[in-house]
Amino acid sequence: MITVAFVPAVSPVIRTVLLPERYQNTSAAQTLVTYLMFYLPTMSLNGILEAFFAATTDATKIAQQSGVMAGCSLVFGSTLLALKHVRRSYSRTAFSVWLNPECSLVYANTLQMLCRIVFAGRHAVSLTAKNTAEHSGFRRGPGIITILAATISGILLSFLPVEIALLPRLGAAGLLGISCLSLM
Fold this sequence. Notes:
- The chain has helices spanning 2-18, 27-56, 59-89, 101-132, 144-158, 166-182.
- It is an all-alpha fold and 184 residues long.
- The protein has a domain at 25-135.
- The chain contains six helices and no strands.
- The mean pLDDT is 79.
- The protein is flat and about 55 Å long.
- The longest helix has 32 residues, at 101-132.
């Protein structure tokens, strides 16, 4: 949630820091932003849930996971085909910047990883459901105030002109990010 809110606003800074100059005006810049916004947070959540799954499961569930992984491969392939078709249909629009072939790989990987998250997440929820009643202060995710703060912060940062220098841009993003985290 926080990366989706903040990465677009600080992407001019990220691009200049992480990409060599020769890649600044190529599809690599958009692919990097897409990767940071969607794939990295999804991969993090997937890693946590699959580690929990591996530590708390039995052989039967491992066999089920193998089937899910095969299904995820199908999701990946079909997503790539669908995005290729969409890319051809909208090749002359502003929308096509987000659908370059490299970004399509990121989207397809993110979607197949979301399927894996659902599988491992259902296991985690079912395993911890019986313990939730014992811990009345247990929260499953960020509250509405945190979600609103991240959304508003992302909107505010998107209005910053691109010409604003590195330090003020990072300072504004940092202050808004700290305020979001403090509301969690």
